[in-house]
Amino acid sequence: MSVTEENLCHHMKVVVRVRPENIKEKAAGFHKVAHVVDKHILVFDPQHQEISFFRGKKTANRDITKRQNKDLKFVFDAVFDETSTQLEVFEHTTKPILQSFLNGYNCTVLAYGATGAGKTHTMLGSATEPGVMYLTLLDLYKSMDEIKEEKICSTAVSYLEVYNEQIRDLLVNSGPLAVREDAQKGVVVQGLTLHQPKSSEEILRLLDNGNKNRTQHPTDMNATSSRSHAVFQIYLRQQDKTASIDQNVRIAKMSLIDLAGSERASTTSAKGARFIEGTNINRSLLALGNVINALADTKRKNQHIPYRNSKLTRLLKDSLGGNCQTIMIAAISPSSMSYDDTYNTLKYANRAKDIKSSLRSNVLHLDNHITQYVKICNEQKKEILMLKEKLKAYEEQKAFTNENNKTELMTSNPQKKEIARFQEILSCLFHNREEIRQEYLKLEMLLKENELKSVYQQQCHKQIEMMCSADKVEKATCKRDHRLAMLKTRHNYLQKKREEELKQFDENTNWLHRVETEMRLLGQNGDIPKVQTCLYRHTSEIL
């Protein structure tokens, strides 16, 4: 067994989402400090000049008692203004990396920002506006459904929260869980349950159940404030359906993370348990900030990264600077009421852009033992027999429907001669297509048998080399070499024949398209006139 490692240098992708002003901010009359210039540029605390006229000339008034505006320009991979929708955010964040996830790369999407900035809304959303997590899971299962004929896909999920520096399973009732590091698996949470959903409905139900168990308490800044960091992880395993000597298995992990919001006790008026919660949240986010600063430092050489300063940063070790494609969604408020929080969020988001990851596709090569070859060959023969049975069933259905459909062609239709001509052409084309398909399947079977024979001869060759002395090897392996040469010649011949069949198949397809175009011209409003029902089924049954 071996692992493919195609190292790719990749910068963390950072996007910013500005939420609309809430009722409290509008009522108090706070001005806006976040101005979205375009899809990539945002200005924080922009400069505003008050213009007046003196004797018909413009003059700029400057109140020296007012604080100087920062007028800072930030450039990100994407900037979403107050009118952006959940779907727009998903289309520009998680959707592009879903294909990477299916190709075996680890991926992470995390929402970062102050309390009440819109992180949980972005990640989870509501019943009418589903968030990034829901849209991601739906799109993932849609993609899996598209490749189900070629690959066997299986998923497993876990959902945990970090609350007051303790890890808790959100899908089952459990006590605090411990974190350890494994040389092969990376960061592992001991005792965390894995669930294997069979459909998108089941996985969404697990997500809903976990959200209900998540710790939430109202604060002055947010009536439904999330008081814990939530980490939802999906593990995807893919394997080719077709049996072969070398099996490739892709195993990847996607983490969807909703961080708790940073907050100041003076702003939230937190006391007692809420104050302790806020302190622990800020401590873990401070540790996260230190990790971001250390990873973004381009001058660092073998610098220590303080992952172990909190449970959160230990869990995010793989996602920050490791073998993972990561997207950070920085959520901010546009109001001057959250001036410091917005400024700090933008600073950390700007630093995170410099974090580099070393990506590699997690592909396992499973080399089957020689004893498995017979089993593989039998599975391929079963598949060929199944295809032959489908062709036989089609022939029987065609014979049954031919008599019934003759009546339709004899109806008093001015186009019946043309339709009859197309009927004959299509029958010939589909019959030819069947013959090509059968010949192609036969060549596939012969190629597989040839490959298995070659592997067997190679194994015998190696055994002879191991058992015989050096002076007798050439004589002992002469017969095997001759047999291998014959098998190679036959393999090349079969491959050439198979390519010829594929060319004929493509030519047949082109003819079908031409006939379809002519039939549309014959029909009304571009519709194809009705011919025998069985001909409509040909394309789907023998492709």
From TrEMBL:
Keyword Ribosomal protein on entry: no
- From what superkingdom does this record's organism come? Eukaryota
Subcellular localization is given as: Cytoplasm, Cytoskeleton; Nucleus
Keywords, alphabetical: ATP-binding, Coiled coil, Cytoplasm, Cytoskeleton, Microtubule, Motor protein, Nucleotide-binding, Nucleus
PROSITE patterns documented for this protein: KINESIN_MOTOR_1, KINESIN_MOTOR_2
Q: Which residues bind ATP?
A: 113-120
Its GO CC terms are: microtubule; nucleus; spindle
- Note whether Cytoplasm occurs among the keywords: yes
Q: Which InterPro entries match?
A: Kinesin-like_fam, Kinesin_motor_CS, Kinesin_motor_dom, Kinesin_motor_dom_sf, P-loop_NTPase
Coiled-coil regions in this chain? 377-404
Location of the Kinesin motor domain: 11-355
* Signal peptide positions on this chain: none
Biological process (GO) annotations held by this record are: microtubule-based movement; mitotic cell cycle
- The name of this protein is Kinesin-like protein
Q: Which organism is it from?
A: Molossus molossus (Pallas' mastiff bat)
